[in-house]
Design brief:
single chain, alpha/beta, D-Maltodextrin-Binding Protein, domain 2, 7-stranded mixed β-sheet, 4-stranded mixed β-sheet, 17 helices, 15 strands, globular
C-alpha cells in the first residue's frame, strides 16, 4: 500500500513540475527602472496587456538610477541571456546597444498593416532609433528641455511674451532681478543645470547649438570652433559677469535643485525638463498658475534647439519570445496607451496624433507648446564612446564655468582628449 501511495506521489510531483515548467516557458519579461510610483503604473499597464492577450509578461524592476539600469542590462546582454525579452533604453544607450548586436531589428515588424509608423516623429526615429539604416527601437515617451518663466513677473514689468533670444533673456533677467531683490535677496534671473554631471552635457549642447555650433560636425566630434567658444563664454558670463545665475550653478545645480529654487519663487527663468511643469502647478506650489513654458532661446541669427530625452523600447536579439514581445511594443506605442500615459502620469507621447487629441489638449494644455518644441530637438551624439565623451565634456565645461580655465582652453583640451579616445575606438 505504501508503495502505491509513493508511486502516485511521484506522479503528482512530476505533474506539478511539468506545470511549473510549462508556465515558465510561457513567461517573458520586460526590465524597467524608475521611481516606485512609475513602476506601479507600469505594472498596471502590463496587467492590462496580459488580460487582453492572455500572455504572461512579467515586470522585472530595475534600480531608479539610469547608470545602474544600464549596467544590469549590459551584463545580461553581453552574456546572451534570453531574459530580458524587452527593456527600456535611454536615448544615449541606443547606439552602443545596436552596435553591440544586442537589439532585434524591428523593420519587418513595423510593416504590419495596422502599425502606424508615420505617426512617430521621423526626425527622432532617424537620429535615435535607427542604426546603419535599420530600426532598432521605438520611443515610448519623450522628454525635452524647456524654458519656464514667471508669467506674472513678465506682465508686471511690461513684457508681453517670453524672450526669443539669449540677449533678450539677459536684459529681462537683469532688469527684473535688480528690482525683485529688494524684497527677495535670493532672487536670480536665470537658473540652469551647470553641475558636473550628464545634465551639463545637455545644457552645453543647447547653448552651443543655438549659436550654430554643437558637439558634432559632419559626423565627427568638432568642439574647438569659434561659435562654441562664444557660447561657452556666454555661459560663464551668466554667472561671473552678468550675475543673473548663482555661483552654485557649477557646484550644485542639477534638475531638482533648479526646480526647487524656481518653485520657491526665487527665479524669473528656469531651464528644465518637462517633469517640472506638473510639480510647478501642484497644490501648495508658490508659483502655481504663474508659470509659462516655451522653447529655449537662441543667439541672434541662429535657431533654438532643445536636447532630446526620454525612453525607448527594444527587443533583445536573444529573446525566445520575440513575437510576443513585439505585441507589447505595439500595445505600449498605440494611440490608446500613449493617451493614457500623458493623462495619468504626464509622460509626453511619442505619437504625433496624441498631441492633437481634444481631450489631451483640454486636460494638458501645455502639450501644444511641447509639440512645437519637439520639432526643434537635438540628440546627444550617437557614438560608441559616448560615456567617455560625456565625462570629458562635463569636466572641462564645469572647470570653465567655475572660472578655472578659459572657454578656448576648455574646448581645446576637450578636443585633444577626445582624439585619444577615438584612436582607441578606431574612429579618428
Amino acid at each position: 500500500m505504501k508503495k502505491k501511495y509513493l508511486k502516485w506521489l511521484i506522479i503528482l510531483l512530476l505533474m506539478l513540475i511539468g506545470i511549473q515548467c510549462g508556465n515558465s516557458s510561457e513567461q517573458f519579461t520586460i526590465w524597467i527602472g524608475g521611481s516606485p510610483r512609475e513602476l506601479d503604473y507600469w505594472q498596471q499597464i502590463i496587467t492590462e496587456f496580459n488580460k487582453q492577450t492572455g500572455y504572461n509578461l512579467q515586470l522585472v524592476r530595475q534600480p531608479t538610477y539610469s547608470d545602474q539600469r544600464r549596467q544590469s542590462l549590459v551584463i545580461d546582454l553581453e552574456a546572451k541571456q534570453p531574459n530580458p525579452d524587452l527593456f527600456l533604453m535611454d536615448v544615449v544607450w541606443l547606439n552602443q546597444f545596436a552596435a553591440s548586436n544586442w537589439l532585434q531589428p524591428l523593420d519587418k515588424y513595423v510593416k504590419d498593416n495596422d502599425f502606424q509608423l508615420h505617426q512617430f516623429f521621423q526626425s527622432i526615429l532617424n537620429s535615435v532609433d535607427k542604426y546603419k539604416g535599420n530600426l532598432y527601437a521605438l520611443p515610448v515617451f519623450l522628454d525635452v528641455a524647456l524654458l519656464y518663466y514667471r508669467k506674472d513677473l513678465l506682465e508686471k514689468f511690461g513684457y508681453s511674451e517670453p524672450p526669443k533670444t539669449w540677449s533678450e533673456l539677459l536684459n529681462e533677467a537683469d532688469k527684473i532681478q535688480k528690482i525683485e531683490r529688494k524684497n527677495n535677496p535670493n532672487f536670480y534671473g536665470f537658473l540652469w543645470e551647470g553641475a558636473q554631471y550628464e545634465g551639463l552635457v545637455c545644457t552645453f549642447l543647447e547653448f552651443t547649438s543655438s549659436h550654430g555650433g554643437g558637439i558634432m560636425n559632419n559626423g565627427k566630434v568638432d568642439l574647438y570652433r569659434k561659435s562654441n567658444i562664444e557660447a561657452l563664454q556666454f555661459m560663464q558670463d551668466l554667472i561671473h559677469k552678468y550675475k543673473i545665475s548663482p555661483p552654485s550653478t557649477y557646484t550644485e545645480m542639477k534638475e531638482e535643485e533648479v526646480r526647487l529654487s524656481f518653485q520657491r519663487g526665487n527665479a524669473l527663468f528656469e531651464r528644465n525638463w518637462t517633469y517640472a511643469w506638473k510639480l510647478h502647478q501642484s497644490n501648495g506650489s508658490p508659483v502655481k498658475g504663474k508659470v509659462g513654458l516655451t522653447i529655449l532661446p537662441h543667439f541672434k541669427g541662429d535657431s533654438s534647439v532643445s536636447t532630446l530625452g526620454g525612453w525607448h523600447i527594444g527587443i533583445s536579439r536573444y529573446s525566445d519570445e520575440k513575437e510576443k514581445a513585439w505585441k507589447f511594443v505595439k500595445f505600449i506605442t498605440s494611440f490608446k496607451s500613449q493617451k493614457k500615459l500623458i493623462l495619468n502620469v504626464g509622460w509626453n507621447p511619442s505619437r504625433k496624433d496624441v498631441y492633437k487629441d481634444k481631450q489631451v489638449i483640454a486636460e494638458a494644455p501645455q502639450i501644444k507648446e511641447l509639440y512645437y518644441v519637439l520639432k526643434h530637438t537635438i540628440a546627444r551624439p550617437t557614438v560608441p564612446y559616448y560615456s567617455q565623451l560625456s565625462d570629458i565634456i562635463q569636466r572641462y565645461v564645469n572647470d570653465c564655468l567655475s572660472g578655472k580655465i578659459s572657454p578656448s582652453t576648455a574646448l581645446q583640451k576637450m578636443q585633444n582628449q577626445i582624439k585619444e579616445v577615438e584612436k582607441i575606438y578606431g574612429t579618428e
